[in-house]
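Sequence, please.
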C-alpha cells in the first residue's frame, strides 16, 4: 500500500518532493492558505514552508490535530524540533534537510527524529529512500550544518558557474559558447570526482608551472568557502529565534 503524503507548502522544494514521489505515494499538495485537512489522516505530513512562515503553518497544524500515527516531516531550515513540537502540538516528528538535487534524482539529506519508535524510524528511512539518498544524524545541530553544506550548496555551485561563464564572455566567447564550456566542464568534473580524491584530481589538472597552477594561486577558495559555510550555519541557527 502506497503511503499517504500531504505536502504543506508547494514551492520549489515541495514540488520537487512531489515529483520524486510520483507513482510511489498518494500525494496531496497544499499551498499555504489551502485546506490541509488531508494531513490529518496522512502517513507523512511534510512541512515545506519557508522558516519565516513556520509559526503560521504550525498554528494551522495545531488546529487540525494530526492523527496519532501521522509523522510530521519538517524540511524547514533552522526551525528546531522543540519549536515544531511546541507550536504544532504534535509529538511524532522527523526533521530532514534535503537539497534541490532530489528534483533530478540526485538529492541527499540528513535527518533526525523525535518521539518515534524504532519501527516508526524504519518507516521514515523507507520513505526517504523513495526520494533521495539519506542518512540519520545523532545531534540536531548537525541538521544546521548539513543546511550550510548541501542544503545551500547548489547555490554555491551555481554562483561559481555563473561567474566562470561571465569570465569566459569577458575573454570574447558568446553567452552560449561560455555556458557550453562551463556546463560541460562542471558535468565532467562531477563524474571524475566519483572515483577519486579531490586533492588527487587537482594534481592531475594543475601541473607545476602551468596555467591551472597560476589560476589556483589567485583563487583563495579555502578561507572564502570556510567563511561562507559558517555564515550559512550561523544563519540556520538564527532562524529558530
Amino acid at each position: 500500500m502506497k503511503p499517504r503524503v500531504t505536502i504543506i507548502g508547494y514551492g520549489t522544494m515541495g514540488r520537487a518532493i512531489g515529483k520524486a514521489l510520483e507513482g510511489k505515494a498518494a500525494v496531496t499538495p497544499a499551498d499555504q492558505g489551502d485546506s490541509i485537512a488531508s494531513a490529518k489522516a496522512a502517513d507523512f505530513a511534510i512541512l515545506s514552508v519557508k522558516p519565516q512562515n513556520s509559526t503560521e503553518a504550525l498554528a494551522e497544524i495545531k488546529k487540525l490535530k494530526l492523527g496519532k500515527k501521522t509523522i510530521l516531516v519538517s524540511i524547514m531550515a533552522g526551525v528546531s524540533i522543540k519549536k515544531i513540537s511546541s507550536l504544532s502540538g504534535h509529538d511524532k516528528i522527523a526533521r530532514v534537510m534535503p537539497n534541490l538535487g532530489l528534483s533530478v534524482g540526485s538529492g541527499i539529506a540528513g535527518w533526525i527524529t523525535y518521539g518515534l519508535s524504532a519501527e516508526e524510524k524504519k518507516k521514515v528511512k523507507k520513505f526517504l529512500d523513495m526520494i533521495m539518498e539519506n542518512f540519520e544524524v545523532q545531534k540536531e545541530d548537525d541538521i544546521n550544518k548539513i543546511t550550510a553544506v548541501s542544503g545551500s550548496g547548489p547555490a554555491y555551485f551555481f554562483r561559481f558557474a555563473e561567474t566562470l561563464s561571465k569570465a569566459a564572455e569577458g575573454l570574447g566567447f558568446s553567452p552560449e559558447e561560455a555556458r557550453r564550456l562551463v556546463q560541460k566542464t562542471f558535468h565532467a568534473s562531477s563524474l571524475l570526482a566519483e572515483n577519486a580524491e579531490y586533492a588527487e584530481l587537482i594534481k592531475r589538472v594543475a601541473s607545476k608551472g602551468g596555467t591551472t597552477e597560476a589560476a589556483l594561486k589567485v583563487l583563495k577558495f579555502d578561507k572564502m568557502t570556510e567563511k561562507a559555510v559558517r555564515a550559512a550555519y550561523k544563519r540556520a541557527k538564527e532562524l529558530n529565534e
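The chain has two domains: 4-137, 153-238.
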